[in-house]
Amino acid sequence: MSSIDRKLLHELREILGAGGIVSRATELKVYECDGWTVEKRAPEVLILPRSTAQLSAVLAALHRRGIAFVPRGAGTGLSGGCLSLNAPAMICTSKMNRIVEIDFDNRRVEAESGVVNLHVTNAVKSKGYFYAPDPSSQVACTIGGNIAENSGGPHTLKYGVTTNHVLALEVVLPDGEVVELGGPAEERCGYDLVGAVVGAEGTAGIVTRATLKLMREPENHRTILATFADADSATRAVSMIIASGIVPAALEMMDQLIIRAVEDAFHVGLPIDAGAVLLIELEGLEAGLSTYADEVAKTANLAGASSVRLARDEAERALLWKARKRAFGAVGRLAPNYATQDGVVPRTCLPRILRVIADVSRRYDLRIGNVFHAGDGNLHPIILYDEREPDQVRRAIDAGREILKACVEMGGSLTGEHGIGVEKIGEMPLMFSPDDLRVMTELRHVFDPMERSNPGKVIPQPGACVEVAAPRRQAPI
Amino acid sequence: MAATASSNLANRLEAIVGAQRVRAPTAAEARAADTIVEPVSVEQICEIVRMCEADRIALAPIGAARSLAGIRRSPVALGISMVRMARIVAYEPGDMTVVAEAGITVGELNTAMAGARQRLPVDPCGPGMTTLGSLIGAAHSGPLRLSEGTSRDLLIGVRFVGHGGSLVHGGGRVVKNVAGYDLMKLMGGAFGTLGIVTEATFKVRPIPSDYCLAVVPYARAADAFAAARILNDSIPLSNLDILSPGLATRFNSTGQFLLLAGFSGNPPEIGYQAGRIRDSAGARGEILGALDALRSYELLRDIDFHSAPLAAQIAVPPAFLARVLESCGSDIEFRAHAGAGVAQIIAADEPGAEAPAIAVARWREVARSTRGTLRLIAAAPAIRDSLEFFDTPNAGALALMRRLKAAFDPAGIFNPGCFVGGI
């Protein structure tokens, strides 16, 4: 593989000007990993373009030398998607952070890819709009990173994920060519290449600009906490609520281990004897909300809820959400280390998969907590371990794999929102046949025939076996 | 010569699928394909694709053949009818997902799910004729796209037979899934040019307990669009459509533009929304409930643009739709999905030999002026040769599309020659 030499550094400085590149090893250390901290490798050079033209010139220069690169947004990803693997150059979009145009009439916003997710909503909320995808890292993560990972968030249940909200992209291909894909209208001309680039984890070039849809803020909401004696009845309630014809905006679950950890840490008034709780949020017209809330309460009771509590006011609502969002922080008090999975199962398989997780917990002698997006069937089992004990580390790895395998066997997925990256690349053959993976590689080559954009991610090389040496990353979800 | 080739083809197909499964096209299919085969399994389709690749025989998947019959200049040699592959593979109401073979129609699928009060909420004209394969391939949608999205938003898994006759799948059966590339998006709106979709998994949605439809007449299109805009900003409507006077006649309206605003919810919600609509419409119009609302909605949904002598779908940023339709000229009729910025338009008069190309060029120019798109839905055979059915994408995007086509269809057999840029 070609590498970075003085001549190239000089050429990059010419293109980018002062402050456009970082090549000192001490400064590059910051960029050695994202939220997946198991594997670390710093790039040889970090490139910070300020414009599409600069980025295009940079990629053309790398292309001439056959040098591979890794795109990076804010580095909040959880699957090692921007790990510097087989690529000496890293290109960070954080200086391309302008909101180009807000078009309230058409409910569109055009933003550069380095714009922080929450900044989009902040820019439009005064007029009653918001940008729907809301990953937990939204105060830091960028639109470009969201597009690469097809990010979700608690509102996914009602609003869908990033791909449902992106209309057009400006992409710089790995050879430096700038292409416009899609447009501001809801129908496209020709193949849906926007849909192919979203979720490609940076393997189709670098997105520099995106046209996003804005949504109207709902008139009001109701937040409900339903308490259950065991996880089984809580997950049954999830399916019953969904089947009753009500689609909440969010439907989250916490099991006993998590409830106790949260209560010990933050004293928010969760029922510590409960086997599980559901946090259910409804939104829509004020006129209809109370009726829906009553129906959800009835359904929860029917599923065996021991109590159903409606948040009285905004303060109580905020407290309940604080409990949910800080769950991962609370877990940090229970064990020196924890590892989180991102598997998905069909919603009706939730009781089964939770039994599998409980069984795995027993057999591997590891505590596992569950706090997750129940409405979507998107699990986040948290496996507690101590990295100072090599045997525990090995058991944590094996336990995680067994849970993912069970998810796939139930018709689910390896990952609901964190991406494959390098973390789960070895498990891709559990879900996809050699033919599936070959066709995905063919698609990749349409954009990147030499595999220079984020090499070694998403699609495993035929015959290669990636050995994960340590458990999954620990990070707030 | 042609007859011999055709009978040769038939013989070889019969060896794969059996004699009863190879037939001549019906009148409706004749413009889409010369010979029709009705495979009963994925394995048979794989074998047919391998055979066609070896001998460079053009083929295309067909449902009712409306889409392809409307836009192909000449038929492909072989139409793969999915009529025998129409099973529901898996449906679990609690999961709110359904897996079904590509030959089942939206209507059949929705009938099967009605008992659980769920539906696939994509509503093309004639759901009973629209197969899932067609829904995906031709990117059909209808009035409900405003509130429920399109098949692009709801398709979460797909199986298709690609080049080499290999069965490929993307996505899965769960509503949230980011493993691997999104092959579903590639199949959507590709008109069968990248492979034969055999099975699809969709998210489904609850059927609202009550649906009402406000029908409000306006003398001027601009007033109808202005009213639509205010409503769309104030309440979460199910659909929001405007019909030009010529198409509004089916609602017993004469000479008026009709605003049709559907809304649903529980009784207090319905009452509230009805009130807001009455505030906006004043004394004009009426609000239909129950069966009347459903019947009128179906009338709106089933306006048939496939059989028009010249019909197109235009898509622009929604606030520009009123102006765009006005600029298309006074000699059109339209159904506008006002909130989505999408409209179907037909030339009001029987087009002559010269006029259609000029009309289409004007529509296309108007769409382009707002960075929108236009594609033809149907054109009479006599005028077809003079028309471009799709916009030409910008050079960079088109080059990628050509590479995609070459990668997914190296033999060039999947519905060749009728997609963008001659793909």
Short descriptors:
heterodimer, A: 477 residues, alpha+beta, Uridine Diphospho-n-acetylenolpyruvylglucosamine Reductase, domain 2, Uridine Diphospho-n-acetylenolpyruvylglucosamine Reductase, domain 3, Alpha-Beta Plaits, 4 domains, seven-stranded antiparallel sheet, five-stranded antiparallel sheet, 18 strands, 34% helix, globular, disordered C terminus, B: 423 residues, 19 strands, 35% helix
Give a description of the structure.
The complex is a heterodimer of chains A (477) and B (423). Chain A is of the alpha+beta class. Helix content of chain A is 34%, strand content 19%. In chain A, strand 5 and strand 6 form a beta hairpin. In chain B, strand 8 and strand 9 form a beta hairpin. Chain B is an alpha+beta fold and 423 residues long. The model of chain B has no long low-confidence stretch (mean pLDDT 95). At the A-B interface, strand 9, helix 7, helix 8, helix 10 and helix 16 of A face strand 9, helix 8, strand 11, helix 11 and helix 16 of B.
Query: Number of DSSP strands of chain A?
Result: 18
Count of separate structural domains of chain B: 4
Q: Radius of gyration of chain B, Cα only, in angstroms?
A: 22 Å
Tell me, rounded to a whole number, the average pLDDT of chain A. 93
Low-confidence stretches of chain B: none
Oligomer category? heterodimer
Q: What class would the helix/strand composition of chain A place it in?
A: alpha+beta
CATH class categorisation of the largest domain in chain A: Alpha Beta
Give the total of beta strands of chain B.
19
Our estimate of the beta-strand percent of chain B is 15-25%
In the CATH hierarchy, the architecture of the largest domain in chain B is: 2-Layer Sandwich
Query: How far from one another are the termini of chain B?
Result: 27 Å
Q: How many structural domains in the coordinates of chain A?
A: 4
List the chains of the largest interface with their residue counts: A-B, 89 and 89 residues
